[in-house]
Amino acid sequence: MTNHRRSAQRFVRRLANSQFDDVFNPYSDACGNHDGADAPAIRRRNLTLVLEAALTSGVDSFWIARDLGYRGGRRTGLALTDEVHLAAHGGLYGDLPLARATRGPVVAERTATTIWQVLRGLRRPVFLWNVFPFHPHEPDDAMSNRCHTRAERQACRPLLIWLLEALQPKTLVAIGRDAQIALDDLDITAQKVRHPSYGGQAEFISGMEAHYGICAAPRAAQGSLF
Q1: Which residue intervals define the domain Uracil-DNA glycosylase-like in the entry (predicted)?
Q2: What burial class does residue 80 get, using C-beta atoms within 10 Å of its C-beta: 0-12 exposed, 13-18 middle, 19+ buried?
């Protein structure tokens, strides 16, 4: 076993051992409505494979949003990645065998669709993460999204610091105002771009195009590639 694999496994174990009220931890919790057999183990393996590959090959950029959503990372275990784009995420580092952890129809997330539209045109290794790497939800609605609290954010700061120190990205990009505010609170400096949700898709794409000097692929072309 390589040092990078051991490091990735230790990190994912730390994630799996984290527990908060009204928070779904995809690396240890199972959803009775949507998850298949061994879902937490599958999500742990997905993240371990991605992190090991990132540690081994290095990354150009580190994109960080606020927290996992119920249609995306809650199901896949990967930030800013829905089930539609699991294979594309594996392709960032070659051809990682990432797997679905849920049953039923594949679920798409609007934010993930836009994120991967830009990544398709970027064609360089990017590590995707969240300030709070779990799915916080309202007390009586597990299939809702809420913003994490400051206490939750601070509790996860050591995990984020470890990732940044281990991966040493050239560029750190905060996706959305909430992520930027959270990073400021953690004394971490990042370039900010508009979040693609709530009408921000065009501004997000143009911001990323300007930063990287690329032309993001049109949405219509996504189906043939991902």
Answers
A1: 114-198
A2: buried
Output the six-digit token pair for 131: 């300030």
Report the 10 Å Cβ neighbour count for 153. Answer: 20
In the chain, the domains with their CATH numbers are: 3-225 (3.40.470.10)
| Ordered per-residue pLDDT tens for the chain, 226 residues | 789 999 999 999 999 999 999 999 999 999 999 999 999 999 999 999 999 999 999 999 999 999 999 999 999 999 999 999 999 999 998 899 999 999 999 999 999 999 999 998 887 889 999 999 999 999 999 999 999 999 999 999 999 999 999 999 999 999 999 999 999 999 999 999 999 988 899 999 999 999 998 887 554 333 322 2
If 0-12 CB within 10 Å is exposed, 13-18 middle and 19+ buried, where does residue 202 land?
exposed
Separation of alpha carbons 144 and 147, rounded Å: 10
The pTM of the full predicted model, rounded to 2 decimals, is 0.93
DSSP H/E element including 66: strand 61-67
User: CA 113 to CA 66: how far, in whole Å?
Assistant: 17
